[in-house]
């Protein structure tokens, strides 16, 4: 085949002599050197951060926390914990504890790449939330981009890690206290539920009692109304009694005076009776003397006997009439004074006429009357004294009746108010009953709500409480579930540097390899044969380049591809495509094409997305990313090196083949045009 013979001829030319062979060997090695050095230098920079000096300033004074339940205290020093974490190998940098002044001066001079300053109130601020005086704790990170920008970025990451670690610890402790509070609330709420049960029972009893109260107050209102009416009647009766007894004091005084007069009259009657008795005695004596005289002088003076006898009787009757008249006058006076009744006077005066004929009987009756009068005198004295005591007490009785009447009036007014109050009480007791029923319903709802709330408040055991606190303090754990894993920072950059090294290898090939055989054009060969004949030697050398690079990366740098065969195939296709593109540039533009190949490498260096995601590339470079071949190579190698999607790798390989065909067709078209010699081709303007 003509293209094969052209390629063999070019290879023999390159292998003639020692220097060409060495030059050819250098061309084969260049991609491996480029990619190997870059990948070796960036193999694991994060693993060597402990060589980067950084200053650590710990001014934290610590803090004391108090357990609200037990009242105990605990000393915390979060600043010391941060220092132990950083200096214990988990801080990335080589942390050196120093003063704040020395740390700031060291960062400024470059002696330290960064400085972390922990303030004096760091611990106190962290526990301030427990005292309900929250204040956010802070760490001061001092950096200087003039030392190294990536050091600043890494220092920020380390500070974030420290903050997250402290936040997790403090959050876990706070969550623990929070859950302990829930436990206390659960216990207290359980007691509240028990109290609510008792309250429900009491409210039920209260409701029943108020229902009874309603009946009782109704009866009370009825009784109070009756009492009010009775009090009014009592007040009226007492007023009548007071009016009727208004003259009682005067009457009792007159009665006492009359009784005294009766007593005095009785004494007078007693004296008169004594006088009458004495007269009767004298009359009896005279009668007896007359009888004896009559017996002795009966014979002498018969006719004088009647006269003498008549005279003695007349004297006795005269005395008797005088005594009777005196008695009648005294009895009449007593009757006028009201001390004796007419019947009593009549009873006293009736015996007097019969005394004249019955002296003996009168004497006995008079003696008995005298005795009775003495008794009457004593009784009359007692009556007089009683009437006097009654007269003395009657004003007080009248005043008492008046006071009773006034009190009865007040009682009537008060009982009317009581009746009105009882009516209001009866009405209010109905309201009270309704209120107690609502209270019973409300406390029942309260009890039910407390029971429902009690079921919603967690009651955790100690282990579950600790696990829950840890989960709350550190709620998110990032699971390492990578579909494709690079393994190291250097391996992450391998697709980019290997693609770039492949382009560089193709670029330097055309420093020695002729992109197109002039002899083939001169002999009239087909343009496509000349194009393939110029492309094939460089492509074969490119296969050697990527083969050596693959071995170096895999075995020397320990970046083992997951899909080794697919990686080699993709590298070979990429090398062939890059060679075709560079050949087309050289064929079309000559020396300028070589420069354009360098420019195109620089453009792809920033558009391939080898370090940052290609989506972050600004326009118009983002649009170039979608059409330039190095982008396909980088994306395809990521799939084959890390164990990604082979279908994706195949798609990018197909795109490279499309570019390869287009570039080779462009070279063939240029070869077709170069069959005609022009002055420019005979003497180009620029020769490199």
Please state the structural category. mainly alpha
Helix and strand pattern: HHEEEHEHEHEHHHHHHHHHHHHHHHH
Distance between the amino and carboxyl termini: 32 Å
SS elements, strand count: 6
**Helical segment count:** 21
The fraction of residues assigned to DSSP E strands is under 5%
Q: Sheet with the most strands? A: 4 strands, mixed
Mean pLDDT value: 74
Which strand order do you get reading across the main beta sheet? Answer: 4-1-5-6
Extract low-pLDDT stretches. Answer: 297-314
State the helical fraction: over 70%
**How would you describe the shape?**
rod-shaped
- Rg result: 74 Å
Q: What do you see in this structure?
A:
76% of the residues lie in helices and 4% in strands. Residues 297-314 have low confidence and may be disordered. The chain is rod-shaped, with a radius of gyration of 74 Å. Strand 2 and strand 3 (73-76) form a beta hairpin. It has 21 helices and six strands. With 688 residues, it is mainly alpha-helical.
Question: Quick recap of the structure?
Answer:
With 688 residues, the protein is mainly alpha-helical.
Please give a handful of descriptors for the protein shown:
single chain, 688 residues
Write the layout of secondary structure elements.
Elements: H1 2-15, H2 18-41, E1 53-58, E2 63-66, E3 73-76, H3 78-90, E4 94-97, H4 100-109, E5 114-118, H5 122-126, E6 139-143, H6 149-244, H7 248-296, H8 302-337, H9 342-349, H10 351-355, H11 359-456, H12 462-473, H13 489-509, H14 518-522, H15 527-556, H16 564-589, H17 591-607, H18 621-625, H19 629-642, H20 646-673, H21 679-682
Parallel strand pairs: 1-4, 1-5
Antiparallel strand pairs: 2-3, 5-6
């Amino acid at each position: 085949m003509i293209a094969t013979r052209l390629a063999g001829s070019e290879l023999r030319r390159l292998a003639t002599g020692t220097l060409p062979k060495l030059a050819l060997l250098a061309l084969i090695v260049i991609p491996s050197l480029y990619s190997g050095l870059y990948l070796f230098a960036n193999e694991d920079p994060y693993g060597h951060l402990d060589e980067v000096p950084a200053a650590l300033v710990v001014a934290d004074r610590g803090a004391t926390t108090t357990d609200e339940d037990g009242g105990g205290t605990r000393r915390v020093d979060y600043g010391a914990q941060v220092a132990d974490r950083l200096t214990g190998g988990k801080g990335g940098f080589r942390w050196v504890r120093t003063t704040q002044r020395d740390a700031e001066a060291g960062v400024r001079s470059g002696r330290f790449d960064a400085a972390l300053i922990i303030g004096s109130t760091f611990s106190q601020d962290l526990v301030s939330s427990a005292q309900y005086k929250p204040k956010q704790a802070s760490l001061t990170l001092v950096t200087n981009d003039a030392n190294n920008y990536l050091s600043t970025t890494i220092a920020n990451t380390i500070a974030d890690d420290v903050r997250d670690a402290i936040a997790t610890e403090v959050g876990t402790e706070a969550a623990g206290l929070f859950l302990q509070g829930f436990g206390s609330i659960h216990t207290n709420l359980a007691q509240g539920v028990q109290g609510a049960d008792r309250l429900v029972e009491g409210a039920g009893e209260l409701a029943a009692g108020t229902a009874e109260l309603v009946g009782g107050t109704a009866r009370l209102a009825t009784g109070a109304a009756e009492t009010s009416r009775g009090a009014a009647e009592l007040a009226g009766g007492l007023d009548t009694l007071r009016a009727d007894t208004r003259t009682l004091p005067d009457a009792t005084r007159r009665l006492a005076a009359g009784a005294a007069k009766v007593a005095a009259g009785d004494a007078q009657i007693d004296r008169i009776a004594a006088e009458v008795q004495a007269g009767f005695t004298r009359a009896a004596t005279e009668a007896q003397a007359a009888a004896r005289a009559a017996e002795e002088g009966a014979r002498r003076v018969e006719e004088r006997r009647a006269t003498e006898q008549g005279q003695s009787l007349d004297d006795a009757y005269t005395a008797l009439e005088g005594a009777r008249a005196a008695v009648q006058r005294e009895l009449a006076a007593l009757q006028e004074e009201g001390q004796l009744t007419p019947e009593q006077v009549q009873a006293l005066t009736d015996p007097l006429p019969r005394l004249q004929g019955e002296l003996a009987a009168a004497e006995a009756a008079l003696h008995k009357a005298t005795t009775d009068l003495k008794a009457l005198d004593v009784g009359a004295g007692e009556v007089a004294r009683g009437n006097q005591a009654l007269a003395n007490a009657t004003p007080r009785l009248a005043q008492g009746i008046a006071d009773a009447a006034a009190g009865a009036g007040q009682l009537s007014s008060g009982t009317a108010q009581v009746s009105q109050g009882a009516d209001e009480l009866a009405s209010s007791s109905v309201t009270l009953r309704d209120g107690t029923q609502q209270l019973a319903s409300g406390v029942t709802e309260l009890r039910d709500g407390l029971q429902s709330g009690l079921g919603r408040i967690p009651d955790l055991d100690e282990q579950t409480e600790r696990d829950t606190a840890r989960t709350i303090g550190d709620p998110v754990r990032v699971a390492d579930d990578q579909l494709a894993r690079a393994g190291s920072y250097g391996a992450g950059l391998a697709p980019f540097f290997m693609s770039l090294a492949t382009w560089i290898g193709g670029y330097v090939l055309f420093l020695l390899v002729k992109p197109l055989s002039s002899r083939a054009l001169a002999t009239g060969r087909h343009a496509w044969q000349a194009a393939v004949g110029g492309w094939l030697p460089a492509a074969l050398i490119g296969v050697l380049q990527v083969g050596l690079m693959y071995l170096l990366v895999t075995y020397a740098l320990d970046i083992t591809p997951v899909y080794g065969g697919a990686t080699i195939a993709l590298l070979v296709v990429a090398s062939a495509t890059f060679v075709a593109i560079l050949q087309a540039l050289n064929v079309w533009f000559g020396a300028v094409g070589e420069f354009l190949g360098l420019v195109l490498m620089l453009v792809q260096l920033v558009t391939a997305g080898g370090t940052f995601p290609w989506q972050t590339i600004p326009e118009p470079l983002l649009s170039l990313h979608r059409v330039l071949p190095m982008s396909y190579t980088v994306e395809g190698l990521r799939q084959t090196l890390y164990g990604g999607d082979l279908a994706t790798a195949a798609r990018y390989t197909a795109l490279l083949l499309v570019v390869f065909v287009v570039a080779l067709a462009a070279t063939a078209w240029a070869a077709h045009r170069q069959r005609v010699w022009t002055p420019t081709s005979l003497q180009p303007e620029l020769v490199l």
